[in-house]
Amino acid sequence: MALCAVPPAPTFYTHTMRHLLFTLFFCLSFFAHAGIDPAVVKQLAAEESEDKIAAIRKLAQSAEPEAMTLLQELAAGTLKNDKGEEISINNRVRREIDGALAGLKLFDPDPVVRLKATREVAAKADASQAPMLAKALENERDPKIKGMLAEAHALATLKHADMNVRIAAAKVLAGSSDPNIKAVLKAQSEEANEAESLVRRAAFQAYLEVKDRMTFAETVGKIFSGLSLGSILLLAALGLAITYGVMGVINMAHGELLMIGAYATFAVQGVFRNYFPAQLDWYVLVAVPVAFFAAAGVGVLLERTVIRWLYGRPLETLLATWGLSLMLIQAARVIFGAQNVELANPSWMSGGLEILPSITLPLNRIVIIGFSLFVLVLVWALMNKTRLGMFVRAVTQNRPMAGCVGVPTARIDTVSFALGAGIAGLGGVALSQIANVGPDMGQGYIVDSFMVVVLGGVGQLAGAVWAALGLGIFSKFLESWAGAVVAKIVVLVFIIVFIQKRPQGLFALKGRFVES
Amino acid sequence: MRTPFIIRFLQATPKSGWIGLAVFAAISLVLLPMLHLLVPAGSLFHVSSYAITLIGKIMCYAIVAVAMDLIWGYAGILSLGHGLFFALGGYAFGMYLMRQIGRDGSYQSDLPDFMVFLDWKELPWYWTGSDSILWVLVLVLVVPALIAFIFGFFAFRSRIKGVYFSIITQALTFAAMLLFFRNETGFGGNNGFTDFKRILGYPITAPEMRVALFALSALLLMATLVLGRYIVTSKFGRVLAAIRDAESRTMFLGYNPLYYKLSIWTVSALLCGIAGALYVPQVGIINPGEMSTANSIEIAIWVAVGGRATLIGPVIGAFIVNLSKSFFTQAFPEYWLFFLGALFVVVTLWLPNGVVGLWNQIQETRRAAK
């Protein structure tokens, strides 16, 4: 199908022909005044498309703001020739105008517009734009835009007739971290595309530099998402590690305590929406203690009513807590509905931090990594610097002995269960900011957090930290070359194999144990 | 002179057990099939096809429950991955059922519909021979048992036990579920296998076929019970109980727990595989959801409700839980999870010996009160 010339129907504008004529003559005189060659403007009205295009190019290179107005009018079909007839344009000319307009925006006084225009031009810079880019580069003061312009200019001159210009362009492009430029440089370093060996070598050198930089950026990105996943796993597993260490019971309802934390966050958001809409941005901070105490309260309830009566029967505890988790899920469905609920990211947590042109780290994930560090420090201090922590550690290591020297083991059980549940609640606050909040959300984390506990070893904070971060980073790297599902399977198989070698986990408690 | 094996095998089940089995056989092999096939649909005594399918399904579950009881009740090993072996047996037989569809699928192709949909041109290598029922039955027997054997060997060799073992088995079935959810695995992905048409050329929905599968399930359940009785009363079963109660002491007496645990573990998985193979043609579908962790934990509650370390307990438990499930999911769907959750808690807190042990429990409480 031919892309035939369809001039825009000018009906919209024809009502005041005189006004338009006036505009044109006004413009003409105005441009003449501001340094635009009137001959060029006249050429716009030429019969042949070729002439029009040539005129448009000249206008584009003039880099005058008025050229932009003129071109916009031409594109809209409102520009008239001397005889007062509308200048018709076809699609080819239209494309040329669009390109020229984008180029002219490079000279806009507003840096935001310039940045946007630079991005657009840089994506498809070709040789014809080189002079314009050179001029823009000269005028530019903003260092960030200047860098991008230099890159775009180099890309445009990579096919220049002079080989020294080509080499210089390749050297400039070596500083880029754009996958397109990597491909262009690769092509330039091949014999089919470039005759001169010196240029080929320079291009190849530049290609390697870009490639290394991109690999580095990707690695940084993967490590970051691994850390982010690891911090979530850590928040989910810390509480579990404490309760399992102290009581030797696996709490299958642990994932539901995460869910309670997330729903508490949702409830706090609702309160803020209704009563303090102005402070809505800070609801997450209030949600932190609320979620902690909500989950801890449910934890105490579970411990006092069920788990307490099952001590010494870990397998039964596992089943009973599974039953509790089913009831909690159904309770959440009844109270909040089966659908996921909406939680808004506060404005100070949205957006990202650009550390390299190709990687932006989401702010909410950074906040969560920081938050889990904060929780970790808090738990560490509690376990190692307080009397309560000492009791907890004593019960973990040897319950009968701790009881003999006067540690109230039953109360320590309740408190440590509440603590573990509370930490799960905190994990729920973090999760609510990056994942869906729904009745089933806890189920997805239960297997993962057990894996962390199993891998890290029982009753060891350090073990949980290393296992969580290690698992997070390991699975993110696996994911990038094997896909998410395979990565998950490989991780699970890895843990099964790992347990063969070190049944006590990475960090086993030292000492001698007697099995019952 | 040693009594022949077959005699010892049959003698393991006491006389009262045989009477019970005979009653069960009369009901499940004669009475219910006749009431279904011969009594007209409008009659009060007619047993609907829904009831036949439901009871047949629960009998398959009961086989799984007995298998679970052998490993948990008698060897003290709680598996949270028995759903995997059940599903593997089901998938193995499902392959045969898929091939029996022939060209009656919606794409009229020799390949199963989901493969046509994925634009596959030929069957993957592991489907070789899946059109032969004999080979598929071999698969049903071998695949779950083999996987259990390999996994169990490594797990028991490094003496993983207690909650650790439970969690690892849970991870195993979770990983398998993820694997089967993938389309590339070649087992129908999300949707699994369904739309079965026939077995051995006979239509699968015919009342006669339904009754045949029902009777087969009943027979296998009875065989499982007799086998279970033999195992737990033999010397092997005694050693197993010793390992459950005091593993270190048993080792000091010169027994290696590895082979005892591994044997009962493999037998248990084998029984699950057979149950799965019988289950799939009766319910008409198998998908990766069967491998979900929740399903495997539910098996444990059947055993706990009925009574661990008894053989009849798991059967009763499977019937109680699954009949309540059908009742609740129809009458009060939103309360089913509350009921099931409460069942887990109540049984572990107050019914350590299940409903079978309830009578003894009441007697003991009375004696203690005096």
Specify the number of helices of chain A: 21
Oligomeric state of the chains present here: heterodimer
Which structural class should the secondary elements of chain A be placed in? Answer: mainly alpha
Radius of gyration of chain B: 21 Å
Q: Count of helices of chain B?
A: 15
For the biggest β-sheet of chain A, the strand order reads 1-2
| DSSP summary, beta strand count of chain B | 4
Structural class call of chain B reads mainly alpha
How far apart lie the N and C ends of chain A?
85 Å
Overall CATH class of the largest domain in chain A: Mainly Alpha
Record field, number of beta strands of chain A: 2
Low-confidence stretches of chain A: 1-18, 20-33
CATH architecture of the largest domain in chain A: Orthogonal Bundle
Radius of gyration of chain A: 33 Å
Shape of chain B: globular
How far the N terminus sits from the C terminus of chain B, by CA atoms, comes to: 51 Å
Describe this structure in words.
- The complex is a heterodimer of chains A (about 525) and B (about 375).
- Chain A has about 525 residues and is mainly α.
- Chain A has 2 domains: about 15-215, no CATH class; about 220-500, ABC transporter involved in vitamin B12 uptake, BtuC.
- Chain A has 21 helices and 2 strands.
- Chain A has helices at about 15-35, 40-45, 50-60, 65-75, 90-105, 110-125, 130-140, 145-155, 165-175, 180-190, 195-245, 255-275, 285-305, 315-335, 365-385, 385-395, 400-405, 410-435, 445-455, 460-480, 485-500; strands at about 350-355, 360.
- Chain A has a two-stranded antiparallel sheet with strand order 1-2.
- In chain A, strand 1 (about 350-355) and strand 2 form a beta hairpin.
- Chain A is elongated.
- The termini of chain A are far apart.
- Chain B has one domain (about 5-370).
- The N and C termini of chain B lie far apart (about 50 Å).
- By secondary structure, chain B is mainly α.
- The mean pLDDT of chain B is about 90.
- Chain B is built from 15 helices and 4 strands.
- In chain B, helix 3 (about 50-70) packs parallel to helix 8, helix 3 runs antiparallel to helix 11 (about 255-285) and helix 3 (about 50-70) crosses helix 12.
- Chain B has helices at about 5-10, 15-35, 50-70, 80-100, 115, 135-155, 160-180, 205-235, 235-245, 245-250, 255-285, 295-305, 310-330, 335-350, 360-370; strands at about 195, 200, 200-205, 285.
- The interface of A and B includes residues 314, 331, 492 and 499 of A.
